[in-house]
Amino acid sequence: MTPRFATDVITFYHPDFWGLDSADAVRDWALAHPVAFWERVLAALAESGVTGIELTFAPGDIASAVRAFGGAAAFRRELAARGLSVVSAFVADGAAPDWRDEAGLAAIVADAERRAAFLAEAGAGILVAGLPMRRTFGTRPPFFVDAAYMNRMAAVAHAVGEAVARHGVRLALHTESNSTLWYERDIDLFMALTDPQYVWLCPDSCHIALGGGDPVAVARRHAPRIALAHWKDAVAPIDVHLTVDETVHSRQQPYMAELGQGTVDWRGWAAAMSRTPGAGTVLIELDEAPDPVSALRTGTAVARAAITAAAHALPRPGAKPFVGC
To answer: What's the Cα-to-Cα distance from 302 to each of 167, 243, 244, 288, 308, rounded to whole Å?
Structure first.
């Protein structure tokens, strides 16, 4: 099966792509001109040969698509006219209810249902979310990601997963750097505590590597529950305790790389991904690329080569394994 290639809207957020001088300027311009923003993003996407898109925080969020086109159905038609489609949406905006608010479960579920209803009408089937962030190491009182904490997060995930499933949408949890679903141990613990019928995984190869983990090992262990994956490269694990605040994401950037420029074993990753429910989509992650069309073409070339190499290395159907003597 030949997968479709996708990317998230963050790929198109670099100021150079818009001829502007800052990320704030891009956001402000796009919020004031939602139609022009989406027209250029979709044109660049089509030019790159990538056909799928993941919505994220503003300006490339659900609200922006609604302002530009009037609703999910109209947005779907605009994409289809260009041979494009929505793959997923990432709950990444600051307005989303906090999963740590034990009294706010109803609001958390209602927010997820609203997003899922949009996705279903837009023709997509995956809602990606992340667990709350860790606190800066050394902060007092200390915050521990322990069994009690993970049980609370599993209960929220179950409620959200069940609610969005009624819209035909899967909830997939993303392995974000410096979050409480970052280290291999975090992932294994959370997945063990959640019901596989309602809670899925969206592993990010870069972020797992930044936590000192092995993305391929994680993908192999949890292959049956991977609904979608983010294909992204990492230079090296983060070797310092970053301050976890509104700047943490920008300070992670030096550790990230375009596909093929880092340490991720793409052949192993591709082989693991081929055995997952999400095998039909390859989502290339390129945060704020100055030349997104060129970067996406390079990224898809790396991914295609890895997929081809992995396919050639797989045993033929029906072939018996060699047993040495």
So the answer is: 35, 33, 32, 19, 10
Q: What are 259's two structure tokens? A: 């596909």
The amino acid at 25: A
pLDDT in tens, 153-206: 999 999 999 999 999 999 999 999 999 999 999 999 999 999 999 999 999 999
**Residue 312, Cα to own-chain centre: how many angstroms?**
27
Return the axis-axis angle of helices 23-32 and 34-48, rounded to nearest 10°: 110
Dig out the tokens for 139 from the structure: 């902060």
DSSP 165-227: HTTT-EEEEE--TTBSS-SHHHHHHHHHHS-TTTEEEE-BHHHHHHTT--HHHHHHHTGGGBS
Instruction: Extract the tokens encoding 117.
Output: 């209803």
* Strand residue runs (E) in the chain: 4-8, 52-55, 85-90, 126-130, 170-174, 199-202, 230-231, 233-234, 256-257, 281-284
| pLDDT over 80 (residue 94) | no
307 φ, ψ to 5°? -65, -40
Peptide bond into 141 cis (omega under 30): yes
Q: Taking 50 as the threshold, does the pLDDT of residue 323 lie above it? A: no
Nearest to 209 by CA among 249, 239, 189, 248: 239
Q: What percent of the chain has pLDDT over 70?
A: 96
- Full strand arrangement of the beta sheet holding 199-202: 199-202, 170-174, 126-130, 85-90, 52-55, 4-8, 281-284, 230-231
Rg, C-alpha atoms of the chain:
19
Residue 177 to residues 130, 228, 266, Cα–Cα distance (Å): 10, 17, 20
Cβ within 8 Å of residue 293, ≥6 positions away: 44, 47, 48
